[in-house]
Structure to design on (1337 residues):
């Protein structure tokens, strides 16, 4: 499979989910788990560009597919604008739900460059957070939208 | 490294000691661990992997109450891939967080007390292998009577869940009286009696508990754990493993949320430690979500009865509070929780006479302990809802009533708690203003309501868990010639930003940027003791320790620089990574140069700081719970919309004002407030740690109704309303830079504000938490039928209370002692005698 | 953490191959579509198949064909694909509404239409981990002999928890099933039984491959879902309603279906018949709601008090009919379902 832009070869016990292979066989512990049953969202990764719950994906079904985790958000030594905004605006407290929210938000922005607050809420409604109360998370996504637009304009 | 030409323009002062603008404190900043968290680089306990690491799974009791008559582990031990099986006999030494409740074993030796009680452990090469081997352990049980709730516990003295409890299945009772409450009732114009029930709830951190233990070639043990209390865990491991504490290193991994659920030493920690010692391999365990529900240590379900006497103008003449707590199967912090269900009722409004009676029972359920607000949340709900009823009867606006009776700062309460700054009045006024309270209360259309409530909370428990006369927090600073500063402290980062607080305080004092500072926290080998991240103590206590250490360093550096620059010390300023003459900034040295000057003068530089809370004046038995260096205050207004046909309730908005003293980092502070509101709404509307007793004739089972993140309801992003946060900053000198707590206080007023909003909306009282549509519908039916428009508990049961300790309040000449405290025979009266006696 | 049990994995490329494997393995094998229902059940050891037969690589299960006669939806279309499909409007609106409210966005990216139609029935006593179920001595649905919802019941009372099935029933859907022995097309209503264990008349070796809907000119449809939170939660009550109106807004055909009040979605025949020939005025709506709600006999097998859920059933049928009538229900949708769906 392709993991964060790189081809990887990995062997693993066949009963493992994508979550377990990422964390245990590929050393990518950025993706977390809170329940392993699809009830919290903490294990979200992008599979072929779409957010899925890695605890419910068989690793066996990922052959030849494209996986992106939080470790793949930064590029060329720079944080993704979402990561910058989350860090700067206090959107990560304990940080445990953060990787899943970041990749899910990235997928949102890839599809909709200018979501309103309701659309952000809806897109993140599959990710539980017990620390922040979500509001600073929404603001960080909104700030990232602005930064991405500015960056786009700057390059244009 | 900044080049000389690029150095900032350093400010000139006309005279030294001009009010120095704070450079770091109060400035919105990115926290020092933020980038690690957003890149997934923060290493939580389960992220740790070591060579040859084995995995542990626990076998847990399927019965709520039973004796173990036989355990046969032979089939499990023979299962391919299994390295070790442990049972209770391998870890026979009991422990517990409180010295008076050493009632837990890492693995039950002969008595299981709740479904989920750990009975055996399998350590194997793979986690799945360990899980498969659990089924091969044969355990035979002799069932005992299931005790489901406090009422049954009171009526069922045998079989005893713990022989160490006070009597039967009563864990603890206490009664305290400050002043003559009956006299106070006689003086009152109106007396109000209300019962309330507050359901249990759990912390539900997203990160499950996890621990990794490893033995080094010398036989010394290191354990990483998702724990809030590395120091208490350290002591417990030494006791249970019978090893010198000096040979044990506890590293608190950053917690993925704690909220009080990771403040006890846990069986799984003892077990992986023991297994690592036996196997000479690293051993890891990560609990499943269901197991986290069995660890619990969450909010006690509490039945409360308030009797309050007031004058027509709202002045309180007397208050009496009785509480009945469902403690679950073990003591945990329960004795402290018990006193917390009464201690803080006097901190918000002036209560001249107060009687408090509490009873905690054991039941066959996962043990209750500290959850955000620890025991003070439930009675605060009762008090604030009752005040709403009082205001209505006295025809006073609820905000107005409270403003009339707000306690004064810097004085003792009836129960001898020493108050610091009290910003409650300002909180009330501010929240009234920003919410538009006066245009809303009793004025919104049917189905819409506004409710107001207030609260107070500790800024750190004044006394440690185990008696000692040592500092509660220590910080050590190390300085590198290159200008790097390292902070060592036992404080634990559980998401609240404690690492950042330490860095910010040191940075402020020494004129640095927080990113010049490294913090090593939560490691018993590296940092001085800090008692842990609980009771909102870290900002004040570790912060003050850091402040002291930094100021000591500053003094040494200032002396050395003063000599070099020939500038009097009092004119030196530390800012922008320079040390300079405030009146002539061009006379300066860089911070690294200052270090070198000091090192040349003194030798290697290093400083320590520590903090011990001031001695409490609550000297009566039970007075150890409640005192704090100072208290934070909060006021909240909640708007609620209720559908009168179905009772469906939504909360569109919350306004909250919090008396924080000083916001060290405003975005982080806002995050704590909003997070507290979120958790408060969860408790108010949907969270329930509820149990199901199967029909007695068919089964003895008593199980958690929903030990999953799907069925235990916590609010999603769609369920969270907008929140307007107002910070009241009136610095309290007891806190570093005037800061008080913010991690717990803002949770408390939310639930009663919701209840009060429901009453405003549809005229029914829900005297219970959670406040659900079903209850609202039932109350509305009562209202239509002409009965009391209320849903809530019935009568408080008759309990045989002990004779109350009578402690005359300060204004009756009291000295903080009980006039009728009887010393038990043979009890040593001083610590020295205690040592000799043992 | 919780781990899957060990299993053999087969990845057929064609439907014939898949059918052959299922026939050969017998009840020891289960088909795997999105996995969002099956994998949690496996981790909790409610279902422990020896072999998983993945449908991921099977051709011909992901089509979306809209023709003049109607709509053919491949069973392995994800719920996200259904929810995001703007072609599903007017009569088909309710299908989009239902699909878009299942669980969470991440789950909808994996979960399939077929999987939701075949969704296992649920219960407080059954959807629990292995150790928990051991503590209660298991239950009638799995490994035990007592239905703890109603100990006197000889039938399992687990509740139907699918969001799409009530809508598909209201829209008169048919489904095609393929097995090694052949294939059959049946109305969806014939697929379900009101039994918590035998809730679906699908043989172990059959694969549900396609959903067929007639085009519904002149129809309108709506879906209302009751749950505690705005996401994650299964329905604890749902109402799917579809109707065709004359130019004078008189009902010509109507179907009301109640979900999650029994072990299968219940078609409110009486209420539907009552509406025919009438306009949706308040009295008519109230009478239809009352008749439909009579079917709702919720039990203590899910979230919320059962008596309260019954009360809400009436309210929800009312809302659904008001919406069909053309009322703007955004505000009520916002309060109950936390978001006013833009379609």
């Amino acid at each position: 499979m392709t993991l964060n832009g790189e081809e990887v070869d990995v062997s693993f016990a066949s009963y493992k989910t994508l979550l377990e292979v990422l964390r245990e066989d590929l050393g990518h512990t950025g993706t977390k788990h809170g329940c392993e049953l699809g009830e919290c969202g903490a294990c979200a990764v992008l599979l072929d560009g779409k957010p899925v719950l890695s605890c419910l994906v068989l690793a066996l079904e990922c052959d030849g597919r494209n996986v992106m985790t939080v470790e793949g958000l930064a590029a060329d030594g720079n944080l993704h604008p979402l990561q910058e905004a989350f860090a700067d605006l206090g959107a990560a407290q304990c940080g445990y739900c953060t990787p899943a929210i970041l990749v899910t938000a990235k997928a949102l922005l890839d599809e909709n460059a200018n979501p309103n607050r309701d659309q952000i809420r809806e897109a993140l409604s599959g990710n539980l957070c017990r620390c922040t109360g979500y509001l600073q998370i929404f603001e960080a996504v909104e700030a990232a939208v602005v930064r991405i637009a500015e960056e786009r304009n700057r390059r244009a | 490294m900044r080049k000389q030409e690029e150095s900032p323009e350093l400010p000139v002062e006309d005279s030294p000691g001009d009010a120095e603008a704070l450079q770091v404190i109060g400035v919105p900043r990115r926290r020092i661990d933020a980038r690690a968290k957003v890149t997934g680089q923060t290493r939580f306990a389960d992220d740790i992997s070591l060579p040859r690491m084995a995995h542990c799974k626990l076998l847990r009791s399927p019965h709520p109450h039973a004796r173990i008559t036989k355990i046969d582990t032979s089939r499990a031990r023979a299962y391919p891939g299994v390295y070790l099986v442990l049972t209770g006999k391998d870890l026979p030494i009991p422990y517990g967080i409180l010295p008076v409740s050493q009632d837990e074993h890492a693995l039950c030796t002969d008595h299981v007390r709740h479904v989920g009680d750990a009975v055996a452990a399998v350590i194997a090469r793979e986690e799945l292998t360990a899980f498969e081997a659990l089924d091969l352990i044969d355990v035979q049980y002799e069932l005992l009577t299931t005790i489901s709730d406090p009422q049954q516990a009171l009526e069922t003295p045998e079989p005893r869940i713990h022989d160490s409890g006070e009597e039967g299945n009563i864990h603890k009772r206490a009664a305290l009286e400050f002043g003559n409450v009956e006299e106070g009732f006689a003086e009152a114009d109106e007396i109000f009696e209300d019962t309330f029930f507050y359901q249990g709830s759990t912390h539900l951190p997203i990160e499950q508990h996890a621990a990794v233990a490893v033995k080094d070639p010398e036989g010394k043990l290191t354990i990483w754990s998702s724990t809030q209390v590395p120091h208490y865990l350290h002591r417990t491991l030494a006791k249970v493993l019978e090893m010198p504490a000096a040979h044990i290193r506890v590293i608190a991994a950053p917690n993925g949320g704690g909220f009080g659920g990771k403040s006890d030493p846990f069986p799984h920690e003892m077990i992986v430690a023991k297994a690592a010692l036996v196997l000479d391999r690293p051993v890891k365990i990560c609990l499943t979500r269901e197991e986290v529900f069995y660890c619990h240590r969450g909010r006690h379900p509490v039945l409360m009865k308030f009797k309050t006497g007031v004058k027509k103008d709202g002045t309180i003449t007397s208050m009496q509070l009785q509480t009945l707590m469902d403690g679950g199967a073990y003591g945990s912090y329960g004795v402290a929780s018990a006193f917390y269900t009464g201690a803080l009722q006097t901190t918000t409004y002036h209560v001249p006479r107060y009687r408090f009676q509490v009873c905690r029972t054991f039941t066959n359920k996962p043990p209750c302990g500290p959850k955000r607000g620890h025991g003070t949340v439930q009675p605060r709900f009762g008090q604030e809802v009752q005040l709403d009823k009082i205001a209505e009867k006295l025809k006073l606006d609820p905000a107005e009533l409270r403003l009339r009776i707000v306690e004064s700062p810097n004085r003792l309460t009836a129960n001898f708690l020493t108050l610091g700054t009290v910003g409650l009045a300002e909180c009330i006024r501010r929240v009234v203003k920003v919410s538009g309270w006066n245009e809303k209360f009793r004025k919104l259309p049917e189905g819409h309501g506004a409710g107001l409530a207030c609260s107070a909370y500790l800024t750190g428990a004044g006394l440690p868990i185990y008696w000692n006369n040592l500092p509660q927090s220590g910080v050590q600073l190390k300085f590198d010639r290159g200008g790097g500063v390292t902070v060592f402290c036992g404080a634990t980062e559980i998401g609240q930003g404690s690492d950042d607080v330490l860095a910010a305080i040191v940075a402020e004092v020494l004129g640095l940027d927080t990113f010049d500072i490294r913090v090593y926290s939560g490691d018993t080998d590296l940092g001085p003791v800090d008692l842990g991240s609980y009771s909102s103590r870290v900002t004040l206590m570790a912060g003050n320790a850091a402040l002291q250490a930094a100021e000591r360093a500053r003094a040494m550096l200032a002396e050395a620089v003063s000599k070099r620059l020939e500038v009097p010390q009092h004119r030196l300023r530390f800012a922008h990574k320079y040390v300079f003459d405030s009146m002539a900034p061009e006379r300066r040295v860089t911070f690294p140069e200052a270090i070198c000057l000091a090192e040349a003068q003194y030798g290697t530089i290093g400083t320590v700081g520590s903090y011990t809370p001031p001695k409490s004046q609550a000297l009566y038995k039970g007075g150890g719970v409640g005192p704090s260096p100072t208290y934070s205050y909060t006021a909240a207004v909640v708007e609620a919309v209720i559908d009168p046909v179905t009772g469906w309730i939504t909360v569109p908005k919350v306004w909250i004002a919090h008396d924080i003293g000083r916001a060290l980092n405003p975005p982080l502070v806002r995050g704590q407030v909003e997070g507290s509101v979120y958790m408060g709404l969860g408790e108010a509307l949907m969270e329930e740690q509820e149990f199901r007793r199967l029909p007695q004739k068919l089964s003895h089972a008593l199980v958690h109704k929903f030990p999953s993140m799907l069925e235990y309801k916590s609010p999603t992003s769609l369920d969270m309303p907008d929140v307007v946060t107002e910070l009241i900053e009136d610095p309290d000198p007891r806190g570093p830079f005037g800061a008080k707590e913010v991690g717990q206080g803002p949770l408390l007023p939310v639930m009663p504000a919701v209840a009060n909003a429901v009453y405003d909306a549809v005229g029914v009282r829900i005297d219970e938490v959670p406040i659900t549509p079903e209850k609202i519908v039932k109350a509305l039916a009562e209202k239509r039928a002409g009965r009391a428009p209320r849903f809530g508990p019935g009568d408080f049961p008759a309990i045989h209370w002990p004779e109350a300790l009578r402690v005359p309040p300060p204004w009756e000449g009291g000295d903080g002692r009980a006039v009728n405290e009887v010393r038990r025979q043979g009890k040593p009266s001083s610590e020295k005698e205690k040592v000799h006696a043992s | 953490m919780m781990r899957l049990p060990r299993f053999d994995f087969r990845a057929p490329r064609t439907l014939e191959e898949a059918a052959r494997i299922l026939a050969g393995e017998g009840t020891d094998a289960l088909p795997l579509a999105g996995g969002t229902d099956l994998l949690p059940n496996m981790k909790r050891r409610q279902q422990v198949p020896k072999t998983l037969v993945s449908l991921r690589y099977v051709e011909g299960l992901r089509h979306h064909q809209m023709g003049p006669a109607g709509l053919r939806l491949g069973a392995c279309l994800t719920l996200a694909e259904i929810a995001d499909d703007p072609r599903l409007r007017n009569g088909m609106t309710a299908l989009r509404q239902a699909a878009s409210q299942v669980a969470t966005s991440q789950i909808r990216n994996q979960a399939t239409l077929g999987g939701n139609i075949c969704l296992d029935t649920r219960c407080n006593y059954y959807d629990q981990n292995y150790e928990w179920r051991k503590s209660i001595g298991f239950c009638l649905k799995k490994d035990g002999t007592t239905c703890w919802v109603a100990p006197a019941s000889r039938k399992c009372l687990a509740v139907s928890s699918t969001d799409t099935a009530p809508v598909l029933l209201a829209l008169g859907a048919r489904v095609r099933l393929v097995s090694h022995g052949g294939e059959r097309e049946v109305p969806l209503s014939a697929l379900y039984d009101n039994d918590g264990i035998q809730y679906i008349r699908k043989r172990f070796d059959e694969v549900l491959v396609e959903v067929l809907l007639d085009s519904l000119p002149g129809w309108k449809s709506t879906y209302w879902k009751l749950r505690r939170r705005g996401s994650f939660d299964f329905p604890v009550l749902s109402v799917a309603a579809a109707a065709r109106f004359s130019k004078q807004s008189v009902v010509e055909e109507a179907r009301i279906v109640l979900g999650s009040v029994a072990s299968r979605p219940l078609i409110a025949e009486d209420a539907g018949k009552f509406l025919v020939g009438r306009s949706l005025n308040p009295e008519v709506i109230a009478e239809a709601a009352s008749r439909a709600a009579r079917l709702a006999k919720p039990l203590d097998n899910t979230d919320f008090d059962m008596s309260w859920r019954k009360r809400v059933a009436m309210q929800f049928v009312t809302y659904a009919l008001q919406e069909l009538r053309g009322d703007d229900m955004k505000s009520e949708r916002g309060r109950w379902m936390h978001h006013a769906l833009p379609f």
In short: The two ends of chain A are 34 Å apart (CA to CA).
